[in-house]
Amino acid sequence: MRTRATPRGLQLTELGLGAAQLGNLFRVTTEQETVETVDTAWNAGIRYFDTAPHYGLGLSERRLGEQLRSRPRDEYVVSTKVGRLLVPTPETADQRDTEGYDVPADPTRVWDFSRDGILRSVEASLERTGLDRFDILYLHDPENHFEQASTEGIGALIELREQGVVSAVGAGMNYAEPLAELIRRADIDLVMCAGRFTLLDDTAVADLLPLAQERGVGVVAAGVYNSGLLSKPRPAADAMFDYQPAPADLLARTNAVADVCERHGVTLPEAAIAYVYRHPAVVNVVLGARGGRQVQSNVDRAATEIPDEVWRELADAGLIPAAFA
Questions:
Q1: Which residues form the NADP-dependent oxidoreductase domain (predicted)?
Q2: Distance of CA 57 to the CA centre of its chain
Q3: What is the predicted pLDDT for the residue at 321?
Q4: 59-68 and 115-129 helices cross at what angle (nearest 10)?
């Protein structure tokens, strides 16, 4: 699999595995599915793996660590996130998590972007994964705690980078503007932009992407299917966009993009992946998956060559910016 380098030289395979599903996102992921997910990704050449304490209240980190520990450590890149400490709450162990993961509600999440909170978070994540180090650390969804996260929080991550504890630091969010502001404020390496640079959402195009390119910050594109709307050749009538039912006008636009794709013998999800690679700031696309079949499907989609005519026709129809034709 081809790789792209961050400005400081960290090599990432163009496709990464997002491990939220290993934390039982929306439903239980079996142990067999966990093994198949990582094995299939590894065998396909994927060497970048992303997780977080938030994903299944530590379950994703534990499972991913179990699958990676037996593999040569210098052959893969792994990232996790900081900002949510997991605090034991045995009094709620009989309840289920309320943030989308099918796990018991013990522990619970506590927001903390202080220096001490970040150092504690990294230490706990190392313990859960059983790994000797992380290659990338991201502030996780800090938009509602931005002042502390963009000063004390990112300062702690930069300190860890300067100490050689981690190779790259940055932030991951579902919003483009706070990511752009963080680039303006701090010497970061990467941003993970979820859902704001896709075939249907070009929010990041105006500010974040050109700023990242100017400042030498790599962009990891996540959420390129926009919560499922772009994940099938044709969107279902009840398809989701940003975790909400897609409005009628967006469904119509999605079908218009699918029309163009079909005329050229490619599918909507194949184009959704290929589109984000067209910006030079993008160094990786992270896709979540559950089980070997989903991983292989993502790998095959990412390997599909999209004819230039697709981009030209989409631009002519006003469905993508002309700069990406």
A1: 14-315
A2: 17
A3: 95
A4: 50
Q: What is the mean pLDDT of the chain?
A: 97
- Give dist(CA 316, CA 322) in Å, integer: 7
Domain residue limits at 218 = 3-324
Give the Cα separation of 26 and 290 in Å (integer). Answer: 11
- Alpha helix (H) residue ranges in 45-153: 59-68, 115-129, 146-148
Indicate which residue of 55, 175, 225, 277 is catalytic: 55
| DSSP sequence for 7-67 | TT--EEESEEEE-GGGGTBSSPPPHHHHHHHHHHHHHTT--EEE--TTTTTTHHHHHHHHH
13 closest CA partner among 89, 78, 100: 78
Residue-wise pLDDT tens digits, 135-157? 999 999 999 999 999 999 999 99
Task: Give the 3-state secondary structure of residue 175.
Answer: coil
pLDDT tens for 159-178 read 999 999 999 999 999 999 99
Element (H, E) at 194: strand 190-194
Taking the C-alpha atoms of residue 203 and residue 88, their distance in angstroms, rounded to an integer, is 38
Rounded to two decimals, what is the model's pTM?
A: 0.97
- Between CA 40 and CA 180 the distance in angstroms is 34
* pLDDT(108) > 90: yes
Q: Is 55 an annotated catalytic residue?
A: yes
Q: Is the pLDDT of residue 19 over 90?
A: yes
Q: What domain count does the chain have? A: 1
- pLDDT band at 288, cuts 50/70/90? very high
- What region does 308 belong to: left with phi over 0, alpha with psi -120 to 50, or beta? alpha
Specify the CATH number for the domain of residue 126: 3.20.20.100
